[in-house]
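#struct-pred
JK: can someone run the complex with LARABZUK? inputs below
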Amino acid sequence: MRIKICGITQPEQGKTIASLGATALGFMCVPSSPRYVNVEQIRAVVEQLPENVDKIGVFANASLEEIKQTVLDSGLTGAQLHGDESPEFVLQLREYLPDVEILKALRIRGTEDLEKVSSYTNYVDTVLLDAYHPQQLGGTGITLDWAMLEQFSPGCPWFLAGGLTPDNILDALNQVHPNGIDLSSGVERAPGDKDLDKVAKLFEKLKVVSS
Ligand SMILES: O=C(O)c1ccccc1NCC(=O)[C@H](O)[C@H](O)COP(=O)(O)O
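RT: done, structure tokens with the ligand placed:
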């Protein structure tokens, strides 16, 4: 299972989290995020990471040009679209960045939002389901209704996000069967400052899943 820790801002924390077992790290390229990092800050972390760790930039309603430039200048291997990007936009981004993983995040309020997923599955590499909040795009700490996702199987790889913590991760994975998980505020001391003890606890808990 892929394990993505999002909202990395500090090179040493990124390096440690990768060494603890994260398969992907996420970088907030959304200027309004309290976890925002610019190209130089992302590059400083990326340079410390092993090649086999995915480096995902998180964007929301950014232009094709901005995403392309940020990805190429920072050494990112993936772009996560966390705004209102359409399937057509995803297709255009694919032409701009053919070798980069494209993830589409969808914020889920109820079953009607799950129906939107199928319009993206032919265009993206991965879908990410996150919680809905009226004012915040992500990093909310709100959990999804896992019961609603028990049978969810979109036809492409998918990540579960939204309010996951070391304390609830096993309950979530008992109910839901994603290809990956994504955590941010559940392993933080403050926005952008990861709590390495919580990250270590997460990987300790996950040992029972992978064994
Ligand atoms: O985390 C943010 O600050 C953020 C801001 C704007 C758009 C997306 C954002 N985060 C996206 C993520 O992938 C988070 O990891 C995801 O929302 C889960 O967050 P959390 O509920 O805190 O685990």
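RT: quick notes.
The longest helix spans residues 196-210.
The domain at 2-210 is CATH 3.20.20.70 (TIM Barrel).
JK: thanks, will look after standup
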